Structure formats: C-alpha cells, structure tokens
Amino acid sequence: MSAYLIKGVSPLGAAPTDLLIRDGVVAEAGSGLSAAGATVVDADGLVALPGLVDLHTHLREPGREDAETVESGSRAAALGGYTAVCAMANTSPVADTAGVVEQVWRLGREAGLVDVQPVGAVTVGLAGERLAELGAMADSAARVRIFSDDGHCVADPRLMRRALEYVKAFDGIIAQHAEEPRLTEGAQMHEGEVSTRLGLTGWPAVAEEAIIARDVLLAEHVGSRLHVCHVSTAGSVEVLRHAKARGVRVTAEVTPHHLLLTDVRAETYDPVYKVNPPLRTDGDVAALRAALADGVIDVIATDHAPHAVEDKECEWAYARPGMLGLETALSIALEVLGPRWDLIAERMSRTPARIAGLESHGVDPAPGAPANLTLVDPAARRVVEPGELASLSRNTPYAGMTLPGRVVATFLRGEATVLDGKAVR
Question: 372: annotated binding-site residue?
C-alpha cells in the first residue's frame, strides 16, 4: 500500500500541518514530519477536507452506458473531491433486485475510484404499484440501506407507508422524489411569472410541498426514517422545519443548481436548464441557502444526471431533465457558502456519510482516521469547460462560468485517485 506525506496542509482551514498517510489511515499529524519512501505532496495553501459523499448520483449503468458508466461517473466524482457516491436506481434494468444492485456495487469496486453504494428502488420497475425486493437488497453484498424511486414519486400513500414500515426493521431509509404527479402533468418548468410569459406549462411548488407534508406525517406515524430528495421551494423548507421541530426522523438534501440558478434561465429555451424539480425563483434560492446554513436542509447532493447529446440538445419540450454536478459541486458550495470549511464538511461529507451508513467516510483528517480525504485550493478560480469534464456527457449548466476552488488531490483509503488535479487512472 502506498504512503503519502502531505506537507503544509490546513485541515478544515486550521493552522498548516503535515499529514502522513500509511496503511489506509492518517498515521501521523504534526509539523516537520518525514517518512522514508513516502510520496511527498506539497500542500502549501491547500485545505484538507474529509472526502466528499454524494447521496444522489445517476451513473446510468446498466442500460445507458452512452451517457455514463460506473467507471466514468466514478472518475468525475473523484475529480470533484468525492470518495463515495450513492448510485440511484433508475437504470435499465431498474435496480430493484439483489442481482442488479450487486452488479452496480461490483462495477464500483472494479473501478476503484470511489466507493459506489447502490440505492435500491422502492417499487418494482419504478412503477409505483408494488414493493421491490427491499429485504433481499438489504441482505445482498451491496448492503443497500437507501431506497428511492427517484425520477418518480411514490405517490400512493398506502404503498409509501408500507415501504417506511418495511425498512424500519433494518434502519433503512426511503428517499422520496416529492412530486404529486397529478399536479405536474405536462409541466415544463416552474409555475410562475416566467412560465406564464414563455407559455410553458408550470410545475407548481405545492406539488412538492404536498408530498413532503404527507410523508413527514407518515414517517412520524410509523417512526421510520425519511429522506427528501432535491428540495427546491421555500414552502418545502417550512414543512421540514416544522417536522424537525416535532422530532420527525426526516433529513433533506438540496442540489448545487437549486442553490445558484433560477427559472429566468429558461428564457433562453436552452434545455441544459431543464431539470426536475425545476429551477425556482430568487426567493426560493434564498430560503434554500438559509435552510442549508441553519441545518433544516442537511446535505448538498448533486443529483448528477448525465444525458446523451440526442436526449438533451433538442427542443425544450422533448429534452430529458437533468444536469451534471459531480465535478462542480464543491465550487458551487464555495460560491454560495464561502470558505466555511466546517459547514462544507458537515453538509458534503459528515452528514451524508452518516445518513448512508458509510462509517469509514465523513471522518475529519486526524491521526487514526481513515484516509478518505480531499485537498482543495481555495484561491484557485477556473472556467468550466464541458469538453474537459470526465463525464461522458456534457450537459453542465455552468459552461463558461468562472467558479472558485479547485480539487488538487483525492485519496480513497490512502490511495491517490486524483493528484495535481488529474485522475491517477
């Protein structure tokens, strides 16, 4: 196993120190360290964070390897500073059996760039009609603990209740894509002033808020764990705030794009800005940022959604919703939160690792800690060039934007996956 001596790094922005990584852990920390045979990494001016963890990644394999593979998505994740990602179930075939989740898990292990933790489907084929093999997926080699029909809402309240009751037996989580489908039929973007002006069918905020309100009541009744995917409205924040004040076991995530972009982007009719849930208003963005800072929203999750060219570069109405996120998420967090390193570590590493049950992740760099960590240059600024991204797809909404921060190195269990800003393999 390789050894690395990281010289002069600032753990979470604290005073510079040296870190010696050996045998998969942080072996020593202190000034003036030396280690024969170790690869020296000059980290002057860099900040060390626990490796980032993404609760919401679409890797497309199996089925849409033209848009992304487990390997290419893992490489994008490592370049973005991630050491673990949760791979959503809307593949083809759907990850609704032990066999499919184990396939995704093994592909992640073979790639060896990040830990790929599969998310199992709640219902068979994401059809919302009957429960998938939740217990079999939980007992599989992949040890699935999060289940989601993301891309589809579990709209039937009886089925949602049954799912929450089922996973309670092994402390699992149901992650809900909150969208009342009868309120969003034919929707193209956020329902509001811009959609009216553009003549596009609107996706009302209440379609999200109503499902969240229903599900926190169900979770409270059952005593089970609920996670709300990609929260996007100010009203949703208030529902979550009230639920948490009552002690409901609910956590929530927000995406980088919902923290930065608004529905005015749709005025260009550029399908790169089409996403589900849609980009909302300035007021929603402000509420999401405040909720992220005060803990009502627990996690930044990318909802990394790669699409092939033919599925995205077409008329708005026919384009598939979704945006790339893995390689730019940390920069967006810095843009929105500033260099609040402890808060960034909490929202992008510690809390998502805890929610997903990934015990070796989300641990601050200190002696004895697993060497899953990320080195960031906070002074760097970079222009996002789609052609330079590791993802097989190019549907980034940040093309041409100048963003702060640059991931210089990423380490997974003590082995470098990224050095000098480049993937090691």
Answer: no
Annotated binding-site residue? 150: yes
What domains, with CATH codes, occur in the chain?
4-47+367-423 (2.30.40.10), 50-356 (3.20.20.140)
From the candidates 303, 311, 342, 364, give the one annotated as an active-site residue: 303
Work out the angle at residue 51's Cα, subtended by the Cα atoms of residues 48 and 57, and round it to the nearest 5 degrees.
Answer: 145
pLDDT band at 1 (very low <50, low <70, confident <90, very high): confident
**195 DSSP β-pair partners:** none
* 395 assigned to a ligand binding site: no
| Res 425: pLDDT | 82
Q: pLDDT averaged over the chain?
A: 97
pLDDT tens digit string along 263-272? 999 999 999 9
pLDDT in tens, 67-79: 999 999 999 999 9
Residue 284 annotated among the catalytic residues of the structure: no
Is 75 marked as a binding-site residue?
no
